[in-house]
Structures are given as C-alpha cells and as structure tokens.
Design a protein that fits this description.
single chain; alpha/beta; Rossmann fold; six-stranded parallel sheet; elongated
C-alpha cells in the first residue's frame, strides 16, 4: 500500500461547520503521524485558527473556480511533496482540485458535499460532481447521499462519512450564571439559544416569530444566538420590528461557544436546510434538550421524543409550542438532555477521522 499523504483545501474565508470539520480532521491526522497539510485562503478565519494551533498549513489566494493557475501551483506542490490525495472541503475547492488533476493526473480527489439540496444545473457544477476525475464524493449524511443519487451521481462513487465533534470538549464547563451576568439577564431567566449563521437557510424569521409567541406566554424567557452572516441587517431589523430587542439577543460570532451552550436551558435550530448539523451535535454533547426543524440530516441526529423534539420546518406556531412544552415540563427537559448526551457518543470526531483514514487507505491501495 502506498503511503497516505493528504492536502486539504478550503477556499472559504468564514468559520462555520465545514471549516471546523476540516480543521478537526487535519489535526487528528497529524496526531496519528499521517502526512497532512492544509491549504487555505490567506487572512481567512481558518488561516488564523491553523496558525494559532501551530498546525502545518499553506496559504494561496484562489480566485474562484476558473483559477487554473492556482490548480497548476497546487499540482506542483503535490509533486514536490509527494502528496497523493487532495481532500476538497467545499464546492470551490472541488473546482481547484480538478484543475490540479489536469496538471498532475496521478492525484486522487475526495470532494465533500455538506448541503442537502440538489446540485446546481449549470454545466460546471454538474461536471464537478460527475467528472471521472473526481475519485470519491463524501456525503456527510444519508440524506445528502440520497439527493446525490437522485441527481445522477453513481452510488459507488459516494461515501457517507458523517461529521463529528469533540464530545468531551465542554465537560469541564459547569452551568452557572455566566450568561445572566454577561448579558444582564435576571437570575431566573430561562435561556433558549442557538448557534447558527445569520443566513437564509437557517430561517431566523421562523425562529423570531416562534420566540415572539413563546415569549408572550413565558415572562422570563430569553433567547441568545451565536452566529454572523450575510442576512445580519435584515434579521436585526425583523427582531426589532417584532418588539424583541431586549429579549432576543444576537451576539454575532463568539469564541466561547461552550460557555454559551452550558448555560442555555434548551437548544433550538430552525433551519430549512441542514446537511447534518454539527451545532446540534455540540448541543447534544453539552447535554442540552434540542428542538429542531425536520430538515436535511437532522432526523439522523434527533430521535423525536427521545433525545430531542422535531417539528415541521417554516412553522413558527409548532416551534413555539415545543419551546413552551420544554419550558413547562422539567422532567421532559431533563430526560431529553440526558439522552442527547448519551447519543452524542455516536458522533465522535474520532469515529469520523477513522472512517476518513479507512477511505484514504482504500484509495491509495
């Protein structure tokens, strides 16, 4: 069997679930003495994270999917460093990988599909996923695999490797009045919260309207959100129009996610689409009862009524009812949180890494 030597590529400048997954995988591979280097955009949040953790990385400005010169440079680096696998963590990275393979045909390409909607119909998007040059496509949920097959991707080309999280990273954080003091909330505040980008597919309008209904019936209910994104201004405006400025707190990007999760009383996600949901995994690992919309791969995480509650998406009334139910039924809240913590063990990042290594072994052999 040939030696495994991997270059990860991520072209995004933001830090979201995909970047966290790529970072985890790279770090764990290095810990296992497997040759791994990460190539990212200069000045990106991923660049900052890799540098702060002193992990092996390169930066290269990649100017969109037509940047064949970036692909040519990557092909040369791979030849020089004997890299045989490109792990392409986003759609633009897949295009870059295909260019690299033009100049270095021996490269094995592993693309990742993290979203639960059909492949775009334009020629280049179709080519990326259907090209014979793309060795494997990793789907992060069974639902994504189903959609890829429906889009005409050969099932034998698809590998399901579900995302994972460090299920113990919040274990040393205790519930306290941390958020109450930081945000000037009353000591008896019941805090519902989320970790979700301020983007259309996260469906903050449904979340805000559901909270408005629930807050009208629960005087000490507050909501705290971590996340930033392109819809920031529109979401802030809607929140203020609904009269929720003092009770629905939008905190933007935050580094102390653990302190937030450990001080939420319930986790809520209103996404219309969701590949799998690493923020839900983190909430489960923190022992939180989770209320989520039934979208994408979420039902692969949440067993309704066992370790969380599922509701139909884009329905604020249903979502509000579940928030009220979890608030009023303490026993249910405790049982859901305990079961969530137990199920989180199925989504350990170590399992995800082991499955990726197995894929690499099969490819190079």
């Amino acid at each position: 069997m040939n030696k495994i030597s991997v270059m990860h590529i991520d072209t995004d400048r933001q830090w979201r679930g995909g970047q966290q997954q790529g970072f985890y995988l790279h770090k764990k591979l290095l810990e296992k003495d497997i040759s791994s280097v990460f190539l990212c955009q200069p000045g990106s949040l991923l660049n900052e994270k890799l540098e702060s953790e002193n992990l092996l990385y390169l930066t290269m400005k990649i100017n969109g999917e037509a940047d064949f010169l970036a692909g040519k440079k990557i092909a040369g680096i791979c030849r020089e460093k004997n890299i045989n696998i490109l792990h392409l963590h986003d759609a633009h990275a897949m295009a870059t990988g295909l260019w690299a393979k033009v100049f270095n045909p021996s490269l094995l390409l592993v693309g990742v599909r993290r979203v639960d909607y059909p492949i775009k119909k334009n020629i280049f998007s179709q080519y990326k996923y259907k090209s014979a040059k793309m060795t494997k496509i990793v789907a992060i949920s069974d639902e994504i695999k189903r959609i890829l097959i429906k889009d005409g991707i050969d099932e034998s080309k698809i590998e399901v490797i579900k995302s994972g999280v460090d299920i113990d990273k919040f274990s040393n954080i205790e519930k306290s009045l941390y958020l109450n003091e930081k945000l000037n909330l009353p000591d008896n505040a019941f805090i519902a919260g989320t970790v979700a980008a301020l983007a259309g597919h996260k469906d903050y309008p449904t979340l805000l309207r559901a909270f408005q209904i629930a807050a009208g019936k629960i005087p000490n209910l507050y909501f705290v959100s971590i996340g930033d994104g392109p819809d920031r201004d529109a979401i802030f405006r809607l929140r203020d129009e609904l009269g929720l400025k003092d009770r629905f707190i939008l905190r933007g990007f935050q580094k102390d996610v653990g302190n937030h999760l450990k001080n939420y009383d319930v986790f809520v996600l209103s996404s219309k689409t969701e590949g799998l949901g690493t923020s839900v995994m983190d909430a489960m690992a923190a022992g939180l009862p989770c209320i989520c919309c039934k979208s994408g791969g979420i039902p692969e995480l949440i067993d309704d009524g066992v370790n969380g509650l599922l509701v139909e998406k884009e329905n604020p009334v249903f979502l509000a009812d579940k928030i009220i139910e979890v608030f009023t039924e303490e026993k249910l809240r405790i049982e859901l949180g305990k079961a969530a913590r137990e199920k989180s063990s199925q989504f350990s990042i170590d399992k995800t890494v082991d499955e990726n290594i197995e894929l690499y072994k099969n490819l190079v052999s």
